[in-house]
Request: fold
Amino acid sequence: MSAAGGTLPPDERRLGAGAAIQDTKSDKIALACIYTALGLFCLAVLYPIVYVLSASVSNTKRVSAGEVWLWPVGFTLDAYRAILDYKSIVSGFGNSVFYAVAGAVVATILTLLAAYPLSRKGLPGKGIIMAAFVFTMMFSGGLIPTYLVVHDLGLLNTRWAMILPTALAVWNVIITRTYFMVTIPEELVEAGKVDGCSDFGFFWRVVLPLSKPIIAVNLLFYAVGSWNSFFNALIYLTNEHLFPLQVILRQILLQTKVDPSQMADTSKLAQMQELQQQLKYSLIVIGMIPPLLVYPFVQKHFVKGAMVGSLKG
Amino acid sequence: MPSAAHKRTRVAKSRVGLGLRIRRNWQLYAMLALPLIWLAIFAYWPMYGVIIAFKDYNVVSGIWGSPWAGMKYFERFVESYQFWRLIKNTVYLHVYELVATFPLPIILALCLNTVRKKWFSRTTQLITYAPHFISTVVVVGLLVVLTSPNTGVTNKLIGLFGFGPTDVMGDSGMFRHLYVWSGAWQTMGFAAIIYLAALTSVPPELHEAAIVDGASRLRRMWHIDLPAIVPVAVILLILDIGRILSVGFEKVLLMQNSLNLDVAEVIDTYVYKIGLASSVPQFSYATAIGLFRSVIGLVLLVLANTFARRFAKSSLW
Reply:
């Protein structure tokens, strides 16, 4: 019987050795419990999301009356139309897209530039530089000194304030560096040298093409992080035209501030107040959907990245 | 793991002079230049700026020109009536979060690892990762609309059982529970990734041998899978202990309202309020409180690491 596990394909072995062996009764009960628990947990995760989606496209009065439990009741897109009329939401959405894309590109470039040299064997001073990066994970200047730096650089109330101060996450540098150490063997570097390839050339022509998964993971993490962050905007920006979506969401969702001057058409104000609650649901959907649409495509890569990272992490 | 060939090249390299090795690698240093400049400006410059905690900082004189104030601001903080309240709120919230949510991703990973149907495991992962990608503003927004006394679905639900509507967000007794369990909802799935990764290192032969010896599934989870996770868990625990005075600041700030402030005011939100949100910003005082917190965090991290190295045989460094 012990050979049974050995004849299985590797995947099957990884997921549960001895799949060919009959489960005992107690094992079957345990498995059933595990499946049920996981299923229930999935439902618990999904329910708030589905509920808000449904409520955002349901008739306002019927949501308030508590008729919506899971599926939309009295389907309508009024709430989404009202959002399009609210200028700061539209501009906030545009700003957030810009910050996410520009921030992710800048941050990913910086991360790759830091991670590759630090992944190379025998680079003098590597240990000190790495320590300088890692130390910032454990100790930082704190809120006020960082704010003063941004202030002194003249970045307050500029788009740069949303991109530069958070442009590098040391955690990403560590994961990316580990990825390079595992996927770019020293032999390849030596071979490149023998062929007369410079470090720049090797990085550009060999390393980057081999690193698409880790580049994708970096782009995703930085873009999502930027899309979701609100605190930097809160302290660095006072100009409403630069506000990202999350700040607008906070104003409307949590501080219940609806500004009539933001309405394209003031005759809709009454309708707006009626839609207030509705608007909250649809705003949550607008704020939450973009990252949720993107991550499944990159999931395979970040799971792999975490695996590689944990090897030496 | 370095092979003999590697060792030989390394030995050969170390014979080459240091200056020559630096010159040979100038392109690698050139690549590092930009990230290092960033690090100097946005990580180490603020660390230098921390000295304003020991000065009477004013914007006109700048960091260096402002007069020294010694330990004045630290003494003021420790003696202030806010001190124990802030420490208590912060530690309480973090310890509650740690105790309640730390084991959850481990349990999730162990369960997922046992599941043999690949589609089921994949779907569960896909779904449970989702909340990680939702912003704090939206999660708190979700809490607000779902628990709203007038329209929230949770109040409709308890209404079915004959209870009247309650304003949970405004109830200071509920603040910690809401904070911790919505956090569990958001982070548990994604946090399991690293444990799942650790579990792939378990050799299948161990399970085969255990099955032959008649070990049940639960026993194998306990005696084979769990020990494989422990080193990773210890490291994450050390990091968490180092963060004991810095709870999820954004979320606390977003969940605060006039009704729950007595339990919801933590060190970081207080620093923000007196340092930036107030009409008379007290830069030096706020920096001193922030520094106090960072130093305690660092000390705890080092202590936890020493402890772990001695007793659990795994550590950060």
Observations:
- Chain A has two domains: 22-76, 79-312.
- Residues 22-76 of chain A form one domain.
- Chain A touches chain B through 114 residues (CB under 8 Å).
- Chain A has a mean pLDDT of 82.
